Amino acid sequence: MPHPLVPVHPETHGVVLDLAYATANNIAGRPIYDRAHCLLHRDAEVCLRRAVLAAAAAGYRLKIFDAFRPHEAQVLLWHTAPDQAYVADPAIGSNHTRGTAVDLTLVDAQGEELDMGTGFDDMTTASHHFSPEVSVQAQANRQLLLRIMEDAGFVHLAHEWWHYALPGHYGLIDSALLGDLGPMSIQG
């Protein structure tokens, strides 16, 4: 059975990619993926396309930090996270290891990120979706992202303003089945 993942590219999807786990700019403090591929389950990719159109209608673009994540990367994040309450237990798997989650923000016409009050992967209460600890502007920007993503078919995660996933039950995806798309062997 073929894998259900679809590549997401700036040219085909009108998004900006800044795949944090292919760089040292993440909670592990080092690159986790040695190849920067953005992959989503085909059902999530359809919803992402709707979100891209809604963001464009509002004058913005989506900037993606992470999407499909192999199990090995989930294990590494679990062990390096400063607070495991913000990382899914790899024994259970996450929406990322199912290809149904995307971490993202909004950028303006100049490519500047909208103020969301915290950065991506900020593991504090200020990163909670409806946190009163951030400015009124950041709250409004989070609400805009929420509206765009939920109208497209995603649901939000209360503790991470950047995290959206498809509702429903999807199986874990074995990254060994991806062949040439093998997104990201994990760096040791």
UniProtKB/TrEMBL annotation:
Its EC number is 3.4.13.22. It holds the Pfam family Peptidase_M15. Zn(2+) binds at H96, D103, H163. GO terms for molecular function: D-Ala-D-Ala dipeptidase activity. Binds 1 zinc ion per subunit. Its cofactor is Zn(2+). Catalyzes hydrolysis of the D-alanyl-D-alanine dipeptide. This is D-alanyl-D-alanine dipeptidase. It comes from Rhodoferax ferrireducens.
